[in-house]
Amino acid sequence: MSEKEKFTPEGEHSLLRPNRRTDLRLDLLVLEVKGVSESGVFFGYAKNLSGTGMFVATVNPRAVGENFTVSFTLPFEPFVAVSSLCRVAWTREFDPEKGGSPGMGLKFLDMDYKAKSAIERWIAGEDG
User: Fold this and answer.
1) If DSSP codes are grouped into helix, strand and coil, which group holds residue 36?
2) Of the residues 7, 22, 94, 111, which has the fewest C-beta atoms closer than 10 A?
3) What CATH architecture does domain 22-123 belong to?
4) Sequence-ordered alpha helix ranges (H) in the chain
């Protein structure tokens, strides 16, 4: 058994995942996100944003490891349109007992440097 696995009394096990976030992020009220992949187009709402990724609330998250392109407009001046290849890093299903929005954590794979810098300055409170 690895250090990250924990066995429950019923013999089931679950993976304990430490908080691996290394970048500051800021919670958002609403940021509409469009995703395009081989399996089609989807829309979701980002709940938080960092220079390296975002959480998109959706009842139909894509599979972990799936790559696709996301597009959104930064929710602050200069309201830049952003498009980036991303990868689904993790998903969360709806669970009324635990709370939290269902959705997926996305990691940006080719975020434009200017957009990433603008996001990081905004989060740090240096803009807007």
Assistant:
1) strand
2) 22
3) Beta Barrel (2.40)
4) 113-123
SS3 of 105, please?
strand
Structure tokens that stand for 70 in this block: 């996301």
Query: Which DSSP category does 51 fall into?
Result: S
Kindly report each contact of residues 83-86 with a partner whose C-beta sits within 8 Å and lies 24 or more positions away, as own/partner. 84/108, 84/109, 84/110, 84/111, 84/112, 84/115, 85/109, 85/110, 86/53
Total Cβ atoms within 10 A of residue 53 = 22
Question: What pTM does this model have?
Answer: 0.71
pLDDT, position 28: 46
| Helix, strand counts (H, E) of the chain | 1, 8
In what helix (H) or strand (E) does residue 41 lie, and over which residues does it extend? strand 40-49
Retrieve residue 126's tokens: 């240096």
Residue 53 has which token pair? 């990724």
Query: Minimal CA–CA distance to 54: which of 79, 75, 27?
Result: 27
Is the pLDDT at 106 greater than 80? The verdict is yes
